[in-house]
# Entry
Amino acid sequence: MNPFPYNMDSTLVIPYVSDGGIDRNGETVNGTVALQAGYYNRQGYAEPTPDIRYAFTVNGEAVSPILQSGQTFQWDTTSYNDGGHALGVIIVDGTANLGNYRAYASGVYIDNQPGAPSGPVSTPSFGNAIGSQLFGATPDAVTIDPSTDLPSAAPAPMTHVQTAPVHAQPDRFTDPMDAHANHNWFIEALTQSNTGLYQGDPGLYLTKDGNPIIRNYYPQVADDALESLDRVLRQNTKPGERNDNVVSPYATYAPDPDGPGYIGVDLAGWVYRVDETGKVTTIAGREVREEVIPLDYRDTSIDQQTLADHQVRWVGDFGHAPGHGHHGPSEADAVVPCAPDHIHEVPPMCNPHDIAVDPRDSKILYVADTDNHIITKIDMNLDPPKLSIYAGTKQTEGDDTTAGDVKFNRPTSITMTDDGTMYVADHGNNAIKVIAPDGTVSTVKTGLEGPFVVRLDSDGNIVFGENPTSRVKRLDLTSGAVTELADGHDSKRIGLTSTGRATSVPLTISSTRPAQAARTTHTCSASRKTAAATTSSYRIRERPAPSTRGPRTGRATRTGTTRGS
# Structure
């Protein structure tokens, strides 16, 4: 059944400020600006300009004469109060089939007076969105006084959609490609709130001047995770119950041995646990404070130090360098990841790409701290969790396995054997290295093409994915031979999950973007050498329980991206 009450081929007519573009919905404006209409299908793709006539509205009142498609209107914002306002269009007539066109609303924030408002202001909220294209013609208004502090430990005053309990749907998708079909655009999420596929969640933010604004949070940054850190640090992730948490798609998950559940780390350095109900709790690292309204995550003119001062706290014991007496970082430190750190024994995590649980002690975690060029150890047996450098030299890149002077160059992935041996994808050195249980580091293979993610197959050999080639290969640890298993055909993203069981499994290398999806699927028969590259995901999603095992409530997907387009 079509869950949408209109023709699936409908074109959305969406007003926006022309110098900002449709992707700048929620633009902060002042003075006189040009309004323009864009034409988009339900998946966010631009459509040809139709022959229709329309008028622009602000807060439901017409402000322009009737215009022909393609015409702009100069709107004087100085006659309106500072704050949020709703732009709309009224479709009047035209030669096109008007039944195929739907008028939608978008929002702007007027800021003609300097500084933050001195009292309550109203700003429109439009519900969910396809990317930045809003999904709703009638906005609601939220009144907020940014000069008033929120209650301690309270979330920003925006309520997410409440959802039903997690439940199995064994026949949801007969063909996995149905997950991307138009008629299956609603996916039940294990974390955060449920929305249609590729839709954002409304959230309250502050502009850099302190003005409240509502954005539809859509966390897609770029096709290359290695270069996405700045934007990921701006995301307002937060712990909470299933209907009240936000996780980043730029994250990696490992099964929690003490679960059911998962342990994740995102590029911003937040380490957290997801339990079987979808509840997210912080373990260590960089946490966005819930008791403040976060700064606008899309405004890249806000510097990282301002973000840290406003909304970041650090969880865990990072030790202290000689001459410094505190164990921070703490809320007062306002540390910016990746900045030179001479205070702490362990620097705040910088662009970490992978996480592993020690098979000998489920309370010990290891993180591939990519741009600090180290492997970070997190001991959850201590309260707060203790962070230390397991291997590598703090914030120093290189290629050295000498005891006491080990150096990596952007390690992006780690995996472990039962005895504690760790394999490292030393991406910047085009090598795979091994850390023995006693801490000795040696090189397994060099001359590779950017090993990006590394896992073990059922025989204990290495399967790895490359960036930027998008190829999946197998390294025989006995012979040293490298065999190509699949070519991702420049798939943009790659992640690996090794089942360690089957003799032949589907190997899927995905190319997914906010408004489209395409996959190439290979089957690898390699005498019990198994690997499956999984699509990147914006949420941890539930999957049906296997028929021969106990119930499982979730699946974690590895978000690792290769080069951009």
